[in-house]
């Protein structure tokens, strides 16, 4: 049977299918479902802050929807680019694997054809010749055993061939899925690019309409003060949310550890009882006595407190020290951090904003679209638009240290994403109604801003 014929048989047996749903689509649905809860919490938090400060109108609010759409389209393009690269590599790997499998199958088919030809030519004559030869019976027996190995080898070869044919079929399905995913990604990228261009044009029009009002509001010291208060309120509520989440995770982890320990104790008791029953059976057999009846496993007392032994994920005193040490890792980076974007340092911490309040962070002038990088590893706790700061991203570095990045053209990460030091998280811009493109950058500990330049190496 040729390879094409074998695969055709598999294809003929396969049931008819409707429109194909790729694995990528399924994974995206799961990820969106998991992210929905966090997004709801952050949305409620933003609405709460807006209600608290009152309904003060600001010209930049008219840009919010467009700037959010630009950010989301850029983020989608960034994610799609990474996905496309990974999927192309996956497809290349599958293609190489397919070539190796086909080569193996062709070799096995040749071996099988040769075995069948030899068996057809010889028939059963070799067996009869040996039996009637009158030779040494030991030699006859040995030769017959050797001849018996031929059909055994043929059987093993057939089974290996079947396995490889199934692997080829699975490989083809995976390759088709990867190809479908690439087509999905390409179409989504085209849609996002069209949306991005549309929203950029919309923002340009709105900026022109709001230009005079934005210029006047930028000069209002009380407006800058309210922006700072808004950010401070957001940071405080995020810190509370982080603390609540950490407590919930610690409690859930503790419950899992207790259940795992109970299950381990049940297994230990069951193994002990099995050994005891086996020993009783052995003793009874050696003494000719009837075996003792084995007590049921459900008679084991589950309420008995298990002996304390720390599992792999348990928070022992030693691991607590390690966890606290990892949280303090950010503090150990003082003087070693790098600026999140290359550009000109236009405003420093503590300097005055014209006649307004003091800067609580740095303003770094940078071309629109310049890469913004995380100053240290952490987890994104906010990635949204906020009045006064435009597209804003906040990273939690543990032990109540936060880094804050504002005025972005786009935030390229989502709330809940883990990021590494130096990882691209955003692109510079002038969102939020700001005149000059760049990045507003803050560092905070326990909610209070401090001078980033004391932590950053400018070499």
Automatic annotation (TrEMBL):
Compositional bias ranges of the Basic and acidic residues kind: 21-43, 252-276
A GO molecular-function descriptor: metalloendopeptidase activity
Protein name per UniProt: Protease
Stretches for region Disordered: 16-43, 252-318
Transmembrane residue ranges: none
Originating species: Noviherbaspirillum sedimenti
Hydrolase in keyword set: yes
Keyword Hydrolase: yes
